[in-house]
Design goal:
Blueprint (H helix, E strand, L loop, with lengths): L4 E2 L21 E2 L5 H13 L13 E8 L8 E9 L6 E7 L8 H16 L1
Antiparallel strand pairs: 1-2, 3-4, 4-5
Length: 123
């Protein structure tokens, strides 16, 4: 997302104390201009629904959304968010989906916390 490279997703690379060395797959370029996508994701942070990411120590970009889900509790709306940081040369991506939590983008807090944690560890 936002890099132009096709990568293999990794879930839960490490948790707890200590860190194992990670082996990353080689990036594959998509060959398209992602400037407009990055600009839109950045605008969501600076003046839109992803403004919670503005508190991160690096510029981030994000996309929020809701989906109608009549089977979910609450207001029958699901909340999701995907974000990258730093936006001009993304090193990390996080996505959260929260079922039945309605408007207000509660998934934004989950993504912000995940990105803040990763950025702190990666120095």
């Amino acid at each position: 997302m936002a890099t132009g490279a096709l990568v293999t997703p990794h879930l839960g690379l490490s948790f707890g104390r200590g860190h194992a060395p990670l082996t990353w797959p080689a990036a594959r370029q998509l060959g398209i201009d992602l400037g407009p996508v990055r600009a839109g994701m950045r605008a969501a942070v600076t003046s839109g629904t992803a403004s919670m990411l503005a508190s991160l120590p690096v510029p981030a970009g994000g996309k929020t959304g809701t989906a109608e889900d009549p089977s979910a509790g609450g207001e029958g709306l699901d909340s999701w968010m995907s974000a990258v940081a730093p936006i001009n040369a993304p090193r990390v991506e996080a996505t959260a989906f929260i079922r039945g939590q309605g408007n207000g983008h509660p998934s934004s807090e989950v993504v912000r916390e995940a990105l803040a944690y990763w950025l702190k560890l990666s120095g």
